Amino acid sequence: MHLLRSPVFPYLSVEGSNFQLKNGIVTLGCYPQQKRQINYTPTWISENHRTVSSITYKATSVEASVSAASMEAAENDVLKALSQIIDPDFGTDIVSCGFVKDMQIDEALGEVSFRLELTTPACPIKDVFEQRANEVVSMLPWVKNVKVTMSAQPARPVFAGELPRGLQTISNIVAVSSCKGGVGKSTIAVNLAYTLAGMGARVGIFDADVYGPSLPTMVSPENRLLEMNPEKRTIIPTEYLGVKLVSFGFAGQGRAVMRGPMVSGVINQLLTTAEWGELDYLVIDMPPGTGDIQLTLCQIVPLTAAVIVTTPQKLAFIDVAKGVRMFSKLKVPCVAVVENMCHFDADGKRYYPFGKGSGSQVVQQFGIPHLFELPIRPTLSSSGDTGMPEVVADPQGEVAKTFQNLGVCIVQQCAKIRQQVTTAVTYDKSIKAIRVKVPYADEEFLLHPATVRRNDRSAQSVDEWTGEQKLRYTDIREDIEPEDIRPMGNYAVSITWPDAFTQIAPYDQLQTIERLVDVPPPAPTLN
User: Fold this and answer.
1) The domain spanning residue 477 has which CATH number?
2) Which of 246, 280, 401, 489 is the most exposed place for a label (fewest CB within 10 A)?
3) Total-model pTM
4) Strand-pair partners of 435
């Protein structure tokens, strides 16, 4: 009888195993066991033992499989440790949020490296995430060195493929609105934009006021004229301190005397053909009112959120309330109210020259979650005239701290909003029906295309003054099919029909239309 020494399998237990030696291959009936520390004792095998085994391992293949199992266990240890870190905005751990990327582990050296990909580079607690990640992973007994790299998700809106090309690489679009002129809306918009840029975000500002553009006065870019890219036929934004800028005021001394439809066309062209590039936030300085320009903007792009600017006067509150209702109807969430010029301090006292309570009244009446108060400061006004935003001129001042809090609010609220599911409307050609998926519910229903077309409420189908139905039932064929369906802002879809008519169908209206029943789901496609 010859005694043969078994090969060294660092993670393999061979006690009580069946084995056979043939042609230099050891056949074993055993199972790998994961162990952190192993005291190896050679096992001597008799060649005369003839028990048959079910699985044949070569030493190299066993070592590879055991190594893979060990690596998986180590990775699970790291992920379990990181799952202790909770994102306060989403209320769940960073592993479930999908933040952990590119993990690499070297158990022999005890080294772990990975990347935390946050939703925005302006995350206010990114340093806390980095510190906690280092701490919890370093506590694992086998870890000697931890390397954490911080990054942010690529800029991309929820409906990127459905947007004009110039807007497809912008993550969040924030409207700053007041509906009342003279309340400091442009001042808030510009300082908010530069606050977000100071937090590490890529930011742009769009001045949507064609009749009275403020941006050319409030910033001082070296190039004060927009340029055209002749090859792409696009607009190249000007830039100041790293923030991209587009305004009708940078388009030259052209006339600003034009009717509403022409203004809407100018706004559309400036906004959608600009080469914004990748932006985390585009701040839109909305003009006063609730007219064509506001509706055009809400239809061109799905606004992520709106910031409402007001002053303490009752008159300002009345106009602001109109704007809040407009955004509510268009499904744009209002996330913050800024009460400007609310007080000033003198002789050790605080004075409220315009009264107080307008901002808090807006918050309470409309359920807006955050209120920020800005004092009367000569520097805040003068900085707008000199072309240097206050948060840039005095980054440690009281005003800058208020804007810092506002910036944190915007970052957190936009991150939450982007996680929400929107209503999905598609056309299922296999069953010739329009599918509507309602968010936060398992409800999905079907609509007959002809029924949707007959329920159009535009001026072409219904008389605006009398309410009389102009579109007759027989005008629409039963077999009509939509040619295209795409989101229209946050509140509706745009449906293009074969007769070249484009119907705006609000989500609320689609849920009231008569539904199809007993229609089977689409048949699976056979490959």
Assistant:
1) 3.30.2020.30
2) 401
3) 0.69
4) 426, 446
